[in-house]
Structures are given as C-alpha cells and as structure tokens.
Amino acid sequence: MRAGQSNPTYLLKCGKQEWVLRKKPPGELLPSAHAVEREYRVQAALIDTDVPVARMLHLCEDPDVIGTPFYVMERMVGRVFHVNSVPDVTPQERREIWEAMNDVLARIHRVDWKASLIQRR
What we know:
2 helices
C-alpha cells in the first residue's frame, strides 16, 4: 500500500475479504522506532471508544515468521489523501474533510487514557 510512511504496509486479499498487514522494516532500528507492537496495543485499546479505528486481529512479535514483528487489522475503506492541501476536492468537500479530522482529533483527546487499557498495554 502506498500510504505507509514508516512501516511497510500491505493489503491482504482473500476472495472479498481484505486486511492490512503492518510490519517493522528490516535492519538495525532504534529501540523505540517502528514500534508496531505499540501501534497494535493503542489501536486495540481504542476499539471500545468513539475513536474510529480498525479492528486489530493479530499481533505477532516473533521475527522468525516473516522477518520482523507485524500485526494484521481489518481494512477500513475510505479516501487517502497524499497531499495535505487536498487539491482534487471542492472547497466544501475540503471543509468537510478538515472538520471531520478535527472531530476525530477531539475524540482522541477525550479518551481517558489512564483509565483505558492504553496505559496497561
């Protein structure tokens, strides 16, 4: 998938079902860099909140399986914008996109992370 910036991201398909696999890149990494394990745990903890996240399906921390730790999640279908200015939309659509993004950011900030499983995972 083209949108993965720091961790390789792959679309998995089987019939009509689709999932996303994210993995650490190979090679020497800083200890806290590319922490797919942390990504998985945070998103899994957010599933019971009003923050829209994909359902996490499996975390594999064993590098012997595919070369590095990885996780698999359900695919969320939507639009991906590769340019922040979203030039290919109308001004009204651009406003709606930015308002939706601000709404999700506000939802993230309302999560009680101390009471949630985020802190414990």
